[in-house]
Protein: MscS Mechanosensitive ion channel
Amino acid sequence: MNLDLSLTLPVTLIDSDPILDLATKTGLLIAGGLIAFFLARALLVRGARAFAHRTNNSFDDFLLKAGFFSRAALLAPALVFFWGLEFFSGLKGVLDHLIYAYLAVAVVLILAKLLDALSGLYRTFEVSNRRPIKGYVQLVKLFIYMLGGVSVVAIMLGESPWGLLSGIGAMTAVLMLVFRDTLLSLVAGIQMSANDLLHAGDWIEMPAMNADGTVIDIALNTVKVQNWDMTVTAIPTFKFLDTPFKNWESMTQSGGRRMKRAIMIDQSSIRFADPALKERLMKVQHLAPFMIMRQKEIDAANAASGADPSSPLNGRRMTNIGLFRYYAREYLRAHPKIRQDMTLLVRQLQPHADDGLPLEIYCFTSDTAWELHEDIVSGIMDHFLAALPEFDLRAYQRNALVDTRSAD
Structure:
């Protein structure tokens, strides 16, 4: 008799307390759902990993990397929850809505991981550099999240999701205001993709946003640029609709990078070429044939015009800067790192009273990499500056006051 009381008393107490009974059943149901989730995740991930190692298809690898199978395990607790509804007869209607809401959330999360896997697979193709889809994937995710949120609310209220969506249609103006930047960014992304304006890896320059570097990411709302000082600038995507920017990618594809440098010539050093200068420059391989031909043309022109040779101002004469200009052009034409099929100029610009006469070197190097290009340019400018004295020319530099008094 005493033994029977000791066994039946706890059960009687539990059955007589509905709150404790509900808490016990809820705890057991949640524990069962967690066990089902972890078991399903372990089985799915291990099975998928073993299957992926045996196949040559890379899509299953991206599904694993994105965590798709871990998210798919979220469906397993729903089966336990549906089975456990039998023990909640009084709350079956409410719990039924909660389980369907849970399913809606789980499906949304699973679809998001599926999109991540598809995006990762797409990035393995060469076309992904020219046609990035990350922004579109983010837009689809946003649509799925919104649809999932509406579905959860509709399930909890016991209404049709389509009825709620029709109500949201009346809030279009508000939604457009809230998602204004997102919509503009979407339009900008479509235009950039359609017109082939921007790709990951491009070198762009947008002074208005202090951006000058390589594009490392193109998303729906932002374009990330890693500047040359290793900082990162995040530019709103819609800024590319109305903000000027320069894309240097076509320069890289052309195989030639522009060199545009000027040597400031001291105008007081410019003069006619005298016999001593001509004799010295006749030893220069790039100049000798030109000087012989040029002298014949000048002598013929002066003889035809009857120019008086007693003054260098009569008739035509060679000048030291003209000879240097020709020499610089021939030097560039013989340089192995200068593109001969692109523009090549050595020209004078408008003189400046305070800065001398600019002699501009305009050409294209065959190496487009920044370091190699600058090395070629520096080597050419080094040579030209060192060659100026051979033509009796001087580079202009402003005179500085120098205190010649000896220090005590």
